[in-house]
Amino acid sequence: MTDRIIFVCTLLLAGVYFWATAQIPSLELGDPLGPKAFPRLLGVGLLIAAAMLLAEILRDR
Predict the structure, then answer these.
(1) How far is CA 38 from the centre of its chain?
(2) For 16-33, how does the pLDDT look when each residue is reduced to its tens digit (9 = 90+)?
């Protein structure tokens, strides 16, 4: 049961993190990815971790 709670919290955290990343303003000059690139990579890593946790939950059933 605890692993399911952690999974749901991880998904919620990833959703809030992606929403917060979308709120970062884009810059007209400089790198086309801008300041959003690294936070998006962290968000993708968080989603991958959640997917791995889900796979473990389903495998242990």
Answers:
(1) 12
(2) 999 999 898 887 777 777
Does residue 1 register a pLDDT over 90?
no
Cα(9)–Cα(27) distance, rounded to whole angstroms?
32
Which residues have CB under 8 Å from 57's CB, separation 6+? Answer: 3, 4, 7
List, in order, residues 6 or more apart from 7 with CB less than 8 Å away: 50, 53, 54, 57
- Residue 49 confidence (pLDDT): 96
Exposure string (b/e) for 3-38, b if CB count within 10 Å is 16 or more? Answer: eeeebeebbeebeebbeebeeeeeeeeeeeeeebee
